[in-house]
Amino acid sequence: MTKAIIPLLFSIVLLGCGPRIPDDFTVSGKTLDEWLEAQSDSQPEVRVRAVRALSNVGPVVPEVVPALIRALKDPDAGVRGQAALALLKFGPEAKDAAPALEAARNDSDNTVRNLAAKALKKIEGE
Question: I want to staple 76 with a disulfide (CB 3.0 to 4.6 A). Which of 44, 82, 92, 109 is the partner?
């Protein structure tokens, strides 16, 4: 009976242990929260830099993929393209982005459409 309880307890403990980054973690001199906040900046260049920085953080941090999904709806094509490129880089780890990438395949910008299609293929393992 003890042998059956140990794996169960181990699983319960692991469920509460999601990816954590240290409070002093930075990308290009800014914290994750600062980059997430920068996605709301009025200047498209700042939002593009934010998306690039988030792509360097990676998909294991829970806030990153949802932030990139939001960026796929940015009014600026450059921001949308960088988000699609980041999701392409993440591949199957960005599976939650599949519906947003599917929508981005109809984007008004050709580059965004192409990157979204490639990202979907990579996520789906094609």
Answer: 44
Spatial CA neighbour of 91 closest among 64, 52, 123: 123
Q: Which residues contact 73 (CB under 8 A, 6 or more apart)?
A: 80, 100
pTM above 0.90, yes or no: no
Backbone angles phi, psi at 27, to 5 degrees: -125, 120
At the fourth CATH level, the homologous superfamily of domain 27-123 is Leucine-rich Repeat Variant (1.25.10.10)
Task: Sketch the domain layout of the chain as residue ranges.
Answer: 27-123
CB neighbour list of residue 117: distance below 8 Å, 6 or more residues apart: 105
**Distance between CA atoms of 67 and 65, rounded to whole angstroms?**
5
DSSP assignments along 17-45, one per residue:
------TT-EETTEEHHHHHHHTT-SSHH
Percentage with pLDDT > 90 across the chain = 73
